[in-house]
Design a protein that fits this description.
Helices cover 35% and strands 20% of the residues. By secondary structure, the protein is α+β, with helices and mostly antiparallel strands. The protein has a single domain, classed as 3-Layer(aba) Sandwich (Glutaredoxin). A four-stranded mixed β-sheet has the order 2-1-3-4. β1, α1 and β2 form a beta-alpha-beta unit. The radius of gyration is 12 Å and the shape is globular.
C-alpha cells in the first residue's frame, strides 16, 4: 500500500519545486498544501513539526523534514517504498 505523502510548500520556494520534482520522478503520489494559499495553517504546522522552513514533508503522519531529508530517503531507498506503482 502506498504511503500518504503531504508536501507543505510556499509560493516561489525553489526547494519545494525540487522536492515535488523528485517525488514525481520516483512515482510517489503526494498531496500539496500551498501555505501561500492557506497562511492560517503556517503557525499550526510549525507547532506540529517544529519546523519553519519549506518544504515540509509528512509521510503517513510523521514529519520527514525538508528537501535534504527527502534526498536522503531517496538515497537510502526508502522513497521507493512510498511509490504508488
Amino acid at each position: 500500500m502506498p504511503s500518504r505523502v503531504i508536501l507543505f510548500s510556499t509560493d516561489s520556494c525553489t526547494f519545494c519545486v525540487h522536492a515535488k520534482s523528485l517525488l514525481a520522478k520516483r512515482g510517489v503520489a503526494f498531496e500539496e498544501v500551498n501555505l501561500g494559499e492557506h497562511p492560517e495553517l503556517q503557525a499550526e504546522l510549525a507547532s506540529v513539526t517544529g519546523l519553519t522552513s519549506f518544504p515540509q514533508i509528512l509521510v503517513d503522519g510523521e514529519t520527514l523534514g525538508g528537501l535534504n531529508e527527502l534526498r536522503a530517503a531517496d538515497k537510502s531507498g526508502a522513497l521507493a517504498s512510498w511509490s504508488t506503482g
